[in-house]
Amino acid sequence: MQAVYNATIVEQYELNPLARIIKVRPDSGEVPNFEPGQFTTLGLPLDEEPPKSGPDGKPRVKLIRRAYSMASSNQARDHMEFFMSFVGGGRMTTRLWKRKQGDPIWLSPKVTGEFTLTSVPDGKDLVFVATGTGIAPFVSMIRRYRGTGRWRRAVALVGYRLARDIGYGAELEQVAREDDNFFYVPMVTREPEDSDWRGMRGRVQQALEPKFYEKLVGTPLTPEQSHVFMCGNPAMIDGVQAMLEARGFKAHKLNDPGNIHFERYW
Ligand SMILES: Cc1cc2nc3c(=O)[nH]c(=O)nc-3n(C[C@H](O)[C@H](O)[C@H](O)COP(=O)(O)OP(=O)(O)OC[C@H]3O[C@@H](n4cnc5c(N)ncnc54)[C@H](O)[C@@H]3O)c2cc1C
Ligand SMILES: NC(=O)c1ccc[n+]([C@@H]2O[C@H](COP(=O)([O-])OP(=O)(O)OC[C@H]3O[C@@H](n4cnc5c(N)ncnc54)[C@H](OP(=O)(O)O)[C@@H]3O)[C@@H](O)[C@H]2O)c1
Questions:
Q1: 189 Cβ closer than 6 Å to some ligand 2 atom
Q2: Spans of all domains in the chain
Q3: What do you get for the CA distance between the two ends of the chain, in Å?
Q4: Is residue 96 within a helix (H) or strand (E), and if so which, with residue range?
Q5: Which has the least CB within 10 A, 21, 69, 100, 212?
Q6: Which ligand is closest to the CA of 132, given by its number?
Q7: Mean pLDDT in residue range 198-226
Q8: For residue 57, what pLDDT is reported?
Q9: Across all residues in the chain, what is the average pLDDT?
Q10: pLDDT over 90 (residue 56)
Q11: Which of 161, 165, 243 to mutate to test the pocket of ligand 2 (most atoms within 8 A of CB)?
Q12: Maximum distance among all alpha carbons in the chain?
């Protein structure tokens, strides 16, 4: 069994029983090069039983593999970080949730994905719209590029069910305090009315309404000056895309550049 593993969960932080941040270190010590926004694949054996040997005498292990966006900067060279939520009945996450710090895991040596800033010129306004763990690729971009002039302004609008689901909240609030050109709005939809949450309630679309957005950022959201990146729940992506297309934005394609970019998690 040991042979299929090539990496180790070196840190594991539980936000709540259904959401966690893990750091994975390749046993080779070499983190593959990647561009913030890209993803890799993690794998765990389908069967917990010791595997049977194949004709060559090597163990045959069927892996369940799933894609996960890196939350770490590509400048972190000794680990890759991932933000994950538990999917009830999900084949990967039910197995992953039994793992703990120090346990082995399979990490693909390859990274991939087009959900990066590569096609965006310097100095634009970037709007990062996420639900749940969809904040992960934006955390990687912010960690890597904040303070470099890569964007004029960056605006992160993130929807969660509950306040306890918010990942990287303290870190992003800190960035917003230190950088006048970074705006962070976490939003919740299912937080009990009598909780101590003092932030915004509602879905991310509300923060993209022209009046709200302009008051927050101090400038309108226009297709000429802005690129919008969306990640997470596909229903959110469809809804926001329709909203923005009605305002002159256009989906980005490799052979037909636009200013809406998205990564669907399912
Ligand atoms: C490019 C890419 C990057 C991804 N990055 C991340 C990441 O950084 N963090 C992360 O938690 N997940 C991420 N995912 C989702 C991840 O790959 C798995 O689908 C997820 O962990 C569930 O796997 P599972 O085997 O437990 O459930 P499955 O058996 O694969 O899924 C069961 C069903 O749950 C739903 N589902 C899948 N993922 C989610 C989710 N995240 N939230 C709500 N419902 C879901 C779908 O309807 C799916 O059909 C990413 C997916 C893609 C395509
Ligand atoms: N977070 C939890 O407490 C919890 C509990 C049990 C299980 N889970 C499991 O964890 C997985 C991920 O859950 P999650 O809460 O991270 O992700 P999620 O279900 O995508 O919800 C995250 C946020 O996205 C919002 N959203 C949903 N559809 C939208 C749309 N069309 N437009 C805009 N916003 C939209 C949700 O609002 P709405 O609330 O209005 O849908 C919520 O605020 C799921 O499999 C879920 O079953 C989570």
A1: yes
A2: 2-107, 124-264
A3: 30
A4: helix 91-96
A5: 100
A6: 2
A7: 97
A8: 72
A9: 95
A10: no
A11: 161
A12: 67
- pTM score: 0.95
203 lines ligand 2 (CB under 6 A): yes
Q: How far is CA 161 from CA 14, 15, 23, in A?
A: 17, 14, 24
Q: Which residues line ligand 1 (CB under 6 A)?
A: 39, 66-69, 82-85, 87, 90-93, 132-133, 136, 263, 265-266
DSSP secondary structure code for residue 251 in this structure? B
Tell which one of 22, 68, 189 to mutate to probe ligand 1, the residue whose CB is within 8 A of the most ligand atoms: 68
The answer to whether residue 264 scores a pLDDT higher than 80 is yes
Beta-bridge partners for 59: 53
Residues in the chain, overall count: 266
d(CA 19, CA 85): 4
Half-sphere exposure of 13 toward its Cβ, with a 13 Å CA cutoff? 10
CATH H-level superfamily of 2-107: Translation factors (2.40.30.10)
Q: Running DSSP on this structure, what letter comes out for residue 253?
A: B
- Dihedral sign computed on CA atoms, order 167, 170, 171, 174: positive
What's residue 52's pLDDT? 66
pLDDT of 2 > 60? The answer is: no
- In whole angstroms, how large is the CA radius of gyration of the chain? 20
CATH of 124-264, one of 3.30.450.80, 1.20.1730.10, 3.40.640.10, 3.40.50.80: 3.40.50.80
The packing angle between helices 136-145 and 169-178, to 10°, is 30
